[in-house]
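Hi R.,

Here's the input for the magnesium ion complex you asked about:
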Amino acid sequence: MKVLKFGGTSVGSPQRIKHVASLALERGRNIVVLSAMSGTTNSLVEISDYLYKGNIPGAQEILNALEAKYDAVVEELLTTVGARAEALKAIGRSWDLIRGFFARGDRRAPFTAKQEKEILAQGELISTALMVAHLRERGVRAAMLPALSFMRTFDNGEPDMAYIREKLSVLLAQHADAELFITQGFICRDSAGQVANLQRGGSDYSASIIGAVLDLEEIQIWTDIDGMHNNDPRFVEGTRPVGRLHFEEAAELAYFGAKILHPTCVLPAKLHNIPVRLLNTLDPQAPGTLICNTAPDGTIKAIAAKDGITAIKIKSGRMLLAYGFLHKVFETFENHRTSIDMIATSEVGVTVTVDNVERLAAIVDELKNFGTVSVDHDMVILCVVGDLEWHNAGFEARAVAALGDIPIRMISYGGSNYNISMLVRKDDKVEALRRLSANLFPV
Ligand code: ASP
Ligand code: MG
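And here is the predicted structure with magnesium ion in place:
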């Protein structure tokens, strides 16, 4: 058995829901994880934003538009009067739940994060209800596995794998005659049993967790592109899908900007050694990208870029021959719950990069206790990923040489065997990506 995850655009219209249903059916008795239809989660976030502000008409307007959209989807997707009525009733429960918060969005009872999570859960509840209704109309014995009755996290947000395995196994056994299983990505319950989620884009993570706990044959992530490309096709011409990647390489790429796979998805698959395959709904026969524990050695696989990076330099004479300096620097970031991406050190200074500048002013203020601080905004991390183990001589030189006269603010190499990171100005990003492709992947 496999788990097949289809993202928001893959189920973005009635046509595409039908297409996904066919794709899934051709592949046998598997578990299908669905995202919300594209745009829906964003609309639900927008509704919540209005409710936080107590702007009920604002929320009402978005909800009305959403409701009209889904009325049309039901009309086009389902053919029988009975199935349509049933689907509208199921979806109507979502709208009722959301409207239930409208009355409370005033000063006396402020809208809460807990309520927002309940609202955000509706997108996946609806898309899966529609898929099951459609499959049943096609005469398929489709079983719904409600994510809210098995997907659960601990207080720290980590999935409770033992609990998930136990509940999911029971659910599967209850549907021994099912031809296909459908479940919601993204949504879960927290340790207190409240509706929660695995963060935006978390459906990939849901699929990976399910594949891992059930020790499935493969985790398939279906999107709109034929696998992980060796550079960003939005900026570079002639990019090619990478046939095979090591889990570590995929993790670096996912984290450093390859939008196709959510970074959290890699870990459960890697720990349980379940291969992850990235496939394209628009071209199902294309080989895609296989991510597993073995990948070709001694090659550079891909390049990615991460935008919105800020570099912070802390220079101090006191760092020379002293211990504890880095500890104080890192502790400052920890206190402000800001994670660091890249680090470069010298004997008299250290530069770190962050992508979250919410607490920047406070962080800089505190760092001034330890040294002279300067900040560079609008930077980009370029990340070259492959089997870059240090005995494989020459790769780092080629990566740096490829940039030519583009100024490099900092370089990080040797942290893992799989990446070289270089920090450049945002304005140099596109040219840098092109030069890297031209030099590292010559045609
Ligand atoms: N629907 C959720 C989101 O838009 C989860 C997902 O699509 O992976 O973030
Ligand atoms: Mg996604």
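One thing worth noting: The mean pLDDT is 94.

Cheers,
M.
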